[in-house]
């Protein structure tokens, strides 16, 4: 019975999405922190400009 537990198949991924993200592709690799911080920085810059320039 222990051999069945060791050889049990892993659960199937939905539509192969897990396997897709395991593959390496060519292109730029960006840190997620950079991807999030650029829009947040633009929003903050917009608020600051709105506070100081439009009165």
Q: How much is the average pLDDT?
A: 74
Q: What is the distance, rounded to the nearest whole angstrom, between the alpha carbons of the first and last residues?
A: 77 Å
User: Shape, please?
Assistant: rod-shaped
Low-confidence stretches: none
Strand content: under 5%
Given the structure, what is the number of helices? 3
If you compute it from the alpha carbons, what radius of gyration comes out, rounded to the nearest whole angstrom? 23 Å
How would you describe this structure to a colleague?
It is a single chain. This protein is mainly alpha-helical and 55 residues long. Helix content is 60%, strand content 0%. The protein is built from 3 helices and no strands. It has helices at residues 2-6, 17-22, 32-53. The longest helix is centred in the C-terminal third of the chain and has 22 residues, at 32-53. The mean pLDDT is 74.
Please provide a brief summary of the model:
Helices cover 60% and strands 0% of the residues.
Brief descriptors of the model:
rod-shaped, 55 residues, 0% strand, mainly alpha
Question: How do the strands and helices of this protein lay out in sequence?
Answer:
Blueprint: H1 2-6, H2 17-22, H3 32-53
């Amino acid at each position: 019975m222990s051999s069945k537990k060791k050889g049990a198949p892993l659960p199937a991924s939905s539509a192969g999405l897990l396997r897709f993200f395991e593959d390496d592709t060519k292109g730029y690799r960006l840190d997620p922190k950079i991807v999030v911080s650029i829009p947040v920085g633009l929003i903050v810059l917009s608020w600051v400009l709105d506070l100081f320039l439009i009165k």
